[in-house]
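--- STAGE predict ---
source: upstream dedup step, 1 unique chain passed
mode: sequence only
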Amino acid sequence: MRFRTAGVIGAGAWGTALAQVAARAGLDVLLQAREPEVVESIRARRINEAFLPDVRLEDRVSVTAELADLASCDLILAVPPAQHMRSTLTAFAPHHRAGVPVVLCSKGVERGSLKLMTDVLAETLPQAPAAVLSGPSFAGEVARGLPSAVTLACADQALGEELMETLSAPGFRPYLASDLIGAEVGGAIKNVLAIACGMAEGRGLGRSAHAALITRGFAEMTRMGVALGGRAETVAGLCGLGDLVLTCSSPQSRNMSLGLALGQGQTVEQALAGKRSVAEGYESAPAVRELAAKMDVDMPISLAVAALLNGETTVEAVIEDLLSRPLKAERH
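--- STAGE serialize ---
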């Protein structure tokens, strides 16, 4: 097998869970953590107490604080927060060997540039073959080995098949796709939509409203995916619709829990206070709004969430505005 060692950049909950997956798939894994306390916790107790405290890490997982230590790995999984992807990959660039694939596992639209993570990778590590891993997967469940399925998107069919085989582990099933844009758009926008679903839940608007938000949110996600050059069928798969349903349906989702707090009357500052893990929807919402304007894509739910997070409106006004939009055909 070509891939025997995997470097995982970013030891948050999802990065740690993916380190578990790679180890169970038979790889020797080096997990890079920025936080000294995470390195100490894993080395001393085999547990990431800060981000994934209930899971003992596989023996094949080791930890480092240094990106340089990942230089000899055959495969890189990049899992920093989306807004830190560029700075992280730039710092890793001197240690990356040309031809070593980088699997992007973070979801978001970069603020300022309005670029997807594959664009960021192409600009920072131009000699890295790219893949995207995205789908309905809570870190804690994946780390414990509960069944999950994800999309693995790669433009190179042969490399994609090799990566799919490499990362397939007990309870973790990747499905191959060639459409990286579609896979990325679903993962980025569903986080913003999950905040809206949380708000509806917090306001007690009922399951019918929840279902409507998911469905109309999926329409927004699809429109943007197609506008950027992705395929509608990709967005309708695990990386789009599947991830949207999961993220919008459980308070385990950091994004839905943020919306839930807002719907219950907390301010954005109160809802975010004391949180170590990043709610990617909060970080990406302004960029999604700018991207919708740039691409001239109708995304009323996403725009309403961005306005709320920026202090431009209230939960009540958001609900009233969405309910008073002009009537039109469903597949407009």
